[in-house]
Structure formats: C-alpha cells, structure tokens
C-alpha cells in the first residue's frame, strides 16, 4: 500500500543506484530539462500521465507508483529547516549572507514585489575555468509586483 | 561608541533613505558590482581602506564608522533561520524544494564536493519579457571537491 | 536617526492612539481598501510618494519618516513563528487544520501550482447573523501554475 | 491493529490514488461541502455513523477503519510548525504579513474578541479572470467577544 | 511616546510595587473579578473608558497610558513557549500530562468541539486543608461544537 | 516484545474503538475518577496490580501488557511543545494569556510557592446553560511554599 | 522606574563587582545558606522585608529596589533552554545522561511521584582530594507521590 | 540485525518488566553502584566484557546484544531538549532556577573552571523524615580549572 | 530494497560489532587515513569503486550496498543540532566558546575569508603525558579568501 | 553602571577598532598565547588582576571595567545555536560531518570518555602551501575517562 509520495521516491532512488541510471539520461528520455525532471523524480513536482509512465518504465515502477507520480506532492526536500549537508548548506548560506542584498537590489530595480519561485526555472552548468571549474546556475523567476487595492 | 558593525549598517541605511541614494550609484563610484557593494554596505563583506573611505563620503560617516567598515563582520543578514519576508522566503523555498535536485545534479556532473559560497559571485539582471519582466540571477561558484586523504 | 521601518510603525501606532484615529478613515482619505492601507501603515507594504505624504499628515510624521514609508519593508508582522495572540492564532489554526484540505482542493481544481499571496487581496466584512454576527473574509489570489521546462 | 487515525487517513489516500476518486464526488455522495468532507477524510473532523459508512464504501475500508472515522482525531495536518509546501506556505505568509492588519480591523469593527475557527466554514471557488483565473476563498467565522466578569 | 501596551504594563507594575497595591483591591474598585482585572492590568484584556480611567487613577497613569488601556493588546503573557517559572510551568505540565485525557473526556461527553477560551472565566480560591491549604481553580468555558457544513 | 508503554496505550486505544468502550464505564469498574483512570490508560499514571488486571480484562490485554501498566511511564502526552489540536491548544492559550495573572494572584494570596501538579486532582463536568452548555473544570492542587534555608 | 526584577539583579551584580562582595559574606549577614541567599540576590527567590533591607544596605540599593526584592520574581536564570556556559552545561548534561537513571531509581525506591524542587535544598561544598579537589553537592527534595483519586 | 544500542536497551527494558527485575539487584550482582549500573543498562555507559556477560545472563540477551553492551553508546537519554516527564523536569528546573547560583558559588570557591560530569559520581538515597521522606542525592564531580596558556 | 545510505551504515555498524572490526585496520586495508575512512563508512563521504568493494568484503555487504557506498550521501552525522553526546558536545562547546576567537585570529592573519571544511583534513593522535594522556587533533583547511567582484 | 561582561567586551572591541590594535600584540604584552588572550578579551575567560590591569591599559578601560575582567563570565560566544557566520559555520560543519568519526576514533584508542574542553589548548597557525596557504589548528585536550563506581 502506497500512502505517501516519499515511498515512490524511495523506489526511484533504489532503482537508480541498482541500475546506475543518470538523471541527465532520464531528462533526455522525457524531453525536458534535467533540473525539472530530477525535481519531479525526487517528489517535488507532479508529472502528467505520459511522463509518469515513462518514468515508470525507466525505474521499473508498479502501476500504483506511476499513479502516485501524477499526484501533486507535499513539497520541501530537506529534513531540517537549516540543512546540514554541506552542498545544500552553501545555498542556504548564500540566502542568509546575500538575502538582504537580493532584497535591496530587486526592489531598487522593480519596486515592491517578489521574484517568483513558481514561474521559475533553473539551469545548472559546468563552466571550465583554469583555476578550477565552476558551477554556474541561472535562476529565472518572473517578477510579481505587490499592488495596492 | 561603536561596538558592532550593525551600528554602521544602521547609519548607512538611515543616510540612504534621507538622501535617496541608489545602490547602483554607490557601486559605480566604488567601481565594483552592485551585488558585492550592497552586501558590503549591509555588513556582509569587509571593505579595504580606499573603499571604506569612499563609502564614508557617500553616506557621510564618521572616521570611527569608516574604521569599522574595514573589520570583517559577523555575517548572516536574516533575523530568523526561516526568513519571513516574502521576497527572501522565495529563495529559501527554492533551496528547500530544489535542494535535493541541486545536490544530485552537481554530484552527477562533478562528483563529491560543493559549489563554493566564498569563491562566488552573483549577478542580478532584469530580463524583459512579454508576459511580464523576469528577474534573472546568475550564481557562479567554484566547484570544490572532497578528496580522500 | 531612523534606521528601521519599525520605528515609523511605532510613531504611527502612538499617534493613532493619542488622536483616536480609525483605520477605515485613513483608508478613505487614501482612497484604497482598509486592508491594504492598514497593512501599509503597519509596515507590510510600501507606499508611493503621494500616499506617504498623506499618511504623514494624518499621523503627523517627520519628513524622514515619510521617506521611510516609501521604502519596501522587511515583511512579517508576527513576533513568533506560532502566534500567541488568540485572534491571530485562530488563523494559524485554520491553516494548520485545513492546510492539507486547501492543498487537495486547489490541486483538484487547478492542478499543480499555488494561490498567490502577492497578486492577492483581502476583504473583511461584518455579516449580521441572528446567532451572533460573523466575520466574513474574502481572500482572492491568482492561481500560479507550476510548469515543466 | 489500528491505533491512530493517521492509519485510516493513509488507507483513504491510498485508495483515492488507486481508484482516482475526486474529493468533490465524495462530497456530493455525502451531501456536504467539499471543504468539510475533505478535511474529515484527511483526519481533521469526526464523522457520524452514516457518513463514516459511506466513506467506508467509497474507499473500501474495513469495519475497524470505519469505527475510527467516528472518533474525534488529534487535529493539525502539517508536519512542521512553519509549513514547507509552497501552496500551504502562502497561507502561512498571509497570516504572517497580514496578521496584525486582520487583528486591527476586526477589533476596530467588533471590539475585543476573536473570529471563531470552530463555528467556521470555508468555501473555495475558481474565479475566471482574463489575466489568469483566481482562487477565491470565503472564510466565515462567528465573532466571539471577550467579556469582562 | 508610547507605542506598545507593554510600556503601560511596566508603568502599572512599577507603581504597584512602589505603592504596595493589591490586585484584589484594584478589582474591588473596578467591581469585577480579580482574575479579569489582573489580566487586564497585565496587558491581556482591553478596558472600557470608565475602567481605564479608574486604573489610571489607582496607578497614577498619564492620559496617553489611559488611552492605551482601551486598545486591544497583542495577547500572550509568557516570554518563552515553554514557561520557565515553576508556578506557571506546573500549569503547562498539567496541560502536557492531562492534555490527551481532557480531550478524551470532553469529546466523550460533548462530541467534537472545544472548550472556549474566550467565553471563559476563571476563579482562583484558597481552600483550607489540614494537610496544607490548597489552590482551587474553577475554569468555565462554553462548549463550542464543530458542525459539518 | 513490549519495550515502551506507548505500545500498551496503542493496544488500549485500538480495543476501545473496536469495542466502543467508554472511559466513564472503565472508571466505574475501577472505582476511581474518570480523570485519573483515563490518564492512566493513556500512559500518564502507573496502576497497581489490581487496577492493571482489571484494565487488562476490559481491554483484553496480554499479561506482558498488564505488567507494563504497573510501570511508571515517561509522562507527557503531547507530540509537540505547542499543541496543534484545537481543544488542547485552548488550554495552552489559557496558560499563555492568564499565566502571569495566575502567578500574581496565587502569590498575593499565598506568598512565594507553587500550586502542585502532583498532589493534584481535576474534575471535568458539564454545566447546563441556556446560552449553550459549558465545560466546568475544577483543578485542585496543594500549595507548596518555597522556604528559605 | 523599575518594572522588572532583572533591573535590581543588575544593580546587585554591579555593586558586587565594584565593592568586591562575596556571596558567602552576604549569606552570613542574612543568617541563611549561601545557596538560598545567592539565588535570592540573583532574582530567583523572594526576600522578606528584613532580609531585603539588609541586602539593600549591603549593595547600596534604593528603597524602590528594596521593595522589588520582596516581590516574587519570574524564575528561570538561564538565557537559553540548553545552557551554553560550560559549568552550567555540565549540570544539564548530568540531567540528560542520567535522567532516565534518576527516574528509574527514584521510582524503584518510592513508587510513582517526584522529588520536589520546591521543598528542596542544596548544599555545595569543596571536598579535598589528593587527585584534585572535588565539588560535592547535596540535593535534598521531599518525595511527592502521585495518588489516584 | 542490531545496529543501534537503543535496540539492546529495549531488550533489557522488556526483560526487566517481564521478569520483574530490580535495578538494585542487578547492581549487587555486578558489584557496582545502582546509579552507574542502571545508567549502563539504559545505554549511557559502556560495560566491560565481564560486566556485559553478567548483564546478558540477567536479562537473557543474545551474544550480539552482549557485544553491543561493550560499545560506547551515543549518550543522552531524553527525547526532547526540555524534558516533559515531571520527575526529570524538576531536575531541569533546578538547573534553570539555581544555574546562575551554582555558577557563582563554585567560581567563588574554586575560581574559573567546571565541576566534571565525567569524573563524577551520583548517590541517590531515601532519607526518612517525619514530614514525608526525602530523596537525597549526592553529586560529586572533580573540579577542573581553566588554565591560561 | 535500499533507498537511503543510512541503511548501509547500519549494516556496517552491525557487522563491525559482530566481528569486532577496528577502524584503524579498515583504514590500513584501504590505504588511507583512519579519519577519512571512518567518515566514509559512517556515511559522510563517497567511496570509489575499488574502495567500496574492499569495504564490502570487510563488512560482508551485498552488491547493492556496495553500489550505495559510491553514491554521495546526504551529510551530517548528528541527530540534533546541539549534540547531546558528551564527547561530541565538547567539540560543539569549543566552537561556541572559541568561535569568536577563531574568527578574529584567522581574519587577523589572513583577512576576510574562511578555513575550508572541504579542502580539509583531520588527524587524531594520542599524546602521552604524565598528567594523563591527551587527545591531539590537527585540523588543516585551505584558507579561502572572499574577493570583491 | 556595568552589570554584564558583554559591556566590557563592547568597550574592548570599540577601542580595538579605533586604535587599530592587533590581538597578537596584546598577547605578546600579556605573555600568553594569542588564542587564550583573545578568548579572554572576548569575554570567554577570566583574567587575573595583573592581566586585567594590562588589558585595561591597552584598551583604556575604567577601573570598573578592569574589575569585571576578573569575574568569570557566562561563556558561549555565538548568538545562535547554529552559527550563521561562514567562517564559524565551517567549524560547526566539521563537528556535524565528522562528529561520529571523532567519537569512534577516540573511543577506539582510549575507551569510553571524552577529550576535555577545559584542560584544553588551541594553536592556530598559517601553513604556506603552493596551492594556497592553509589554516592549521592544533587542538589538545586531556582524555578524561568515564569510570565505573
């Protein structure tokens, strides 16, 4: 009996390691970005029927699991509010150290409002660099203004 | 008596509002990016002597305040571990929802290690878009590998 | 020296009590809803120049305070993450008890996405009722869909 | 052995996904609002015998599970005090940003007291809108005055 | 400048100690219970004009302070969510140890609903007892049923 | 293998729902108050041999479970330090809103000390009332004075 | 204006350092144990009139401060729920590591109940020891049994 | 498969209740204090081979479990940082209320340093008393001085 | 089905105790430091294929478990943010007590930046000492400077 | 009036920046390590009379401040339990990632016990390195064994 999406995420992770599947290959088969597809497999996005069935084939999932992939999950992928994993913590640190800066500069350019985390995309790329390669990430979010009413 | 950098940040914020100073103008006068300069003014980076003196002139600060700008501050710009401000929260949400995805994809590309938050830069730009302008942010951090020893 | 918007909110609250000013009257003078105007006076929204000057006259604020009213504030009006005040707690309780219900029903109707808290308005009205008057609140938020990319 | 209502909620969620059941259909069969019926199925309300039996038929539950549906549950549907799911967080954000405003306006209209979360109903509707459909929610709660004694 | 009710509570506490005023005497002058009057003086209830003026005379308060007594305060009188003071902690402990019991017994008697903390009164009395006097407290709250809708 | 009292509480709760047992009937069979007996069944009090055996018969427990009923449990019946269940939260709210009042009035009457939560009893009764029945609760705790030494 | 006992504690601490006063000397003048007297000076116990006046003379306090010493304070002397100071932390650690042991052994000897922290005394002594002197502390608390009712 | 010491503690607790074993008897068989032996059985101390085998016989443990008794456990016996159990909480309260006093008096006698929680012993005894028996506990810890270097 | 690295860590810990394996022997077989190898076995580092297979032989792991050893784990080895285990707490205490000192001295020597926890190694050694042997730990981390941009 | 050591630390920090004083120079004048002296100046260690007077001269402190330097402070130099400053966080991360490793290896070498944080010293040095200089830190703490009793 599956009653939480986490159970399906566990099945995917288990199959991924057993069969040495790459997220980028999965993304290619689905025909979407590796960022969105990985997030979906990790239980952060809902898939449509066709996508879910492909994922089911790739990871050898039951029909019940495939049905769950089409359900909108309870989102949030971190076990604690301040993440302990060093890679993820660095992102938390960027938000903490640069948070007030990001706020000031977006408001200076756009006025009161936010950068959407829904109408949003992310692109992670390796940049070759002689002093050591870099991780370059482009975050793109629609500006949503507060309006008086 | 100044005994915490926050006091200088308060002076800067007060002068900024009174005299309607723009962060982008400050950055231009310093000759560095608006992201780094704003973070420095908000107490997240240390300035060198020349930079501190220019900031002192722009915001009309005392010599004591200028001296404090050259001290490395205790960093972290948020009052709570989960930020309440909607603009900053969206960034926290991105880390929470996409955190496991970012981890998977960087490890798939680079192996075990992190994206540095120190050898790091950020660039925030407006992108015109017919459905509403977007905030585009490029984060660039050196990949730092864990090595066995 | 004003270095935080909270100081201006304190001035407004002090003047409001001293002079027995009603939020609904303030809203009428500004020509906007009582919900938005009150939120703005309480440091949750930024005012434009004209609005800020009117607020300045109503609450007898200094020019510096009026300048601060036009700055986007760090939002979040509650002193603790779980509010202790009984009136506000009831709203937190509604989110806690009905949170999973709201999520299920919006997803059933709209698919994956959220109800915006930015492109959002609120209207609070008294409804006469023979068993005791009721507080009726209409919340209206644009549906923002997650999209695959 | 069932010893917690959560076990029954899990059974309902599992059956719902397997058989692709809609909350609005369940509500129609019960003859009550979709908001109350969904909350009840998710373990936030107690059902009477007749309602529980109907729910038992719809979701194919055991007699023991049907008995548990008639027990008042320990309420609260969120795993953390600040919810991480973006849809539910937006509601938390509304309470945080507008909390002091809601308090001020209800007190201005009604005096000291609260808006009940018990003598309470909620109605969630789609509103068509040319700039994108909206989620409209009406919350109705009896005003309960504090009285001196 | 008074901008928070806590400032008035501080004035009352200061005057109470300086002039050795008893809460029971204050209650007698106001003509209400010592429980409600003390709570009001401690910033947990709003007073009407007449009551506020009497309190103003007793504690020698300014007009501004008297005006604040008529404002509904942000309630909650404890500095931490788990109180450290031994007397108050014992009450928290009662809620913790007997919480599930109270819930079971009220539901067994009344069905689903709550005991109101708004339509509520409290009476604290000394009971003489040969093994040591006892504190007897009567809590009375209206039962508010959840109703399906 | 039983290694925690919670396992026995789960057995009791399961049997109670299956066989529709009332706490007040259990109390009558034990010959003690419904408050103490319920608390004991919910894992907050230790039973003596005779009481445990009667409880074992009523709820059809194994000898091992009956042995565990006689062990002093680790007390505290709430899953979070601030309870989310509305009925229990109202009690937490009473402690929060009236905490400082309770402290002041007990000290005014008795001097420094506490109201015991150990030499303590509780009695919950329905009071008929024309405006809606009330829950009346009498708490009785021995006053324990601090003494200098 | 004194409105919190902490202000008096601050005066005492300031005078103690300026005039190099020893807690043991203060205790001798009051004629009580150093443990109780120190706790009282640090804002954890209420003094009677005579004791307060002596403390007032020793630490050169105003009449207002002396009046406050006779008020029962809000107790709890630690700034965080887990203390950071190494000396105090060791005591917290003892409670954490030995907590379940203490519980088991007191229940084995006395049955269900607690060791009172109110009818309680503490005696701290230096014990000479060839491997380094030891701190010996005797805690004495009345056993208070839970009783069924 | 045993992978955590807690599993062995659970086996010991289960056997203890089933066979009605007393900690003091266990201690006698081991030939050490009841305090240390109980702490060891509860997973807070490591046993040597001989001790572990005796414990294994007393509680009828497997060889694997006996092996685990000789592993140093991850210490800390409380499920929450502020304990909810009334008996253990009283000890937390003593640390909270008397914490600053203990610090002051140990420093006054010994200078800067701590009372060790490692080179430490505890002895819990019943003291007969006409007003009710008392729990007397002697804590003995080596004083460890901070030294400059 | 293995879906989390913790399951493999549990297998390793279980085999280690059953077969009395020493970390230093494991390190010797792998040919790396005991610090890195232990951290890897405890789920804090990713192993390469060869290393994982050797670990698999030593601890008798399945192929699936060996595959998981090569996956980068979610790092962080402590169950609570403030560790309760006395040995680990002492390290937390060093960071708390000496944290500001470490910050000041590294900045004084190197300017703004950090000591890397990624390009990092640790060496733990016993130092014989007549007053009791000492644990000597060398931490070595690359200095990473913040740079303006 | 000085009533907390933090006030003296603030005076020292203010004077340090104004007069551009180096911690290493202060240490040289005191004749002790820079680590201990800095910790003492930052309010984590108590100074003796001679040391305090020298510090008083260096930082131009009042006699009252010099007296406070000789008082044992309430230790702990971090504003939050998980530090936000990147440099200090890296140390917290080391404790988190390597915590279980440190525990395993010290126990493997020494048996049950801890590495003292009191009989402890720290030495921070720059190590030149062609790939970038390193921070080398030697931590030395006496091993303190748990003993059975």
Percent helix range of chain A? 40-55%
CATH superfamily of the largest domain in chain A: lambda repressor-like DNA-binding domains
Count of all domains of chain A = 2
Shape of chain A: globular
CATH topology annotation of the largest domain in chain A: 434 Repressor (Amino-terminal Domain)
Indicate the CATH class of the largest domain in chain A. Mainly Alpha
Helix-strand pattern of chain A = HHHHHHEE
State the distance separating the first and last CA atoms of chain A. 48 Å
Which pair has the most extensive contact? A-B, 66 and 66 residues
Multimer state: homodecamer
Strands of the widest sheet of chain A, in order across it, are 1-2
CATH architecture level-2 label of the largest domain in chain A? Orthogonal Bundle
- Number of contiguous helices of chain A: 6
Domain Cyanate lyase C-terminal (chains A, B, C, D, E, F, G, H, I, J): 77-149
InterPro entries (chains A, B, C, D, E, F, G, H, I, J): Cyanase, Cyanate_lyase_C, Cyanate_lyase_C_sf, CYNS_N, Lambda_DNA-bd_dom_sf
Family (chains A, B, C, D, E, F, G, H, I, J): Belongs to the cyanase family.
EC number (chains A, B, C, D, E, F, G, H, I, J): 4.2.1.104
Topology, please?
Ten copies of one chain form a homodecamer.
Chain A: H1 5-19, H2 23-30, H3 34-41, H4 49-59, H5 63-69, H6 86-110, E1 113-127, E2 134-145
Antiparallel strand pairs in A: 1-2
Helix pairs in contact in A: 2-3, 4-5
């Amino acid at each position: 009996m599956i009653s939480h999406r986490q159970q399906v995420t566990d099945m995917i992770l288990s199959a991924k390691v057993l069969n040495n599947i790459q997220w980028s290959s999965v993304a290619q088969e689905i025909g979407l970005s590796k960022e969105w597809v990985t997030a979906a497999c990790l239980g952060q996005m809902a898939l449509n029927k066709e996508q879910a069935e492909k994922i089911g084939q790739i990871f050898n999932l039951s029909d019940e699991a495939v049905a769950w992939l089409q359900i909108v999950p309870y989102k949030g992928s971190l076990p604690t509010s301040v993440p302990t994993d060093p890679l993820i913590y660095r992102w938390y640190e960027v938000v903490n150290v640069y948070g007030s800066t990001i706020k000031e500069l977006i408001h200076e350019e756009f006025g009161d409002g936010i950068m959407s985390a829904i109408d949003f995309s992310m692109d992670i790329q390796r940049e070759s660099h002689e002093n050591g390669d870099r991780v370059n990430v482009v975050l793109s979010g629609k500006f949503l203004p507060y309006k008086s009413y």
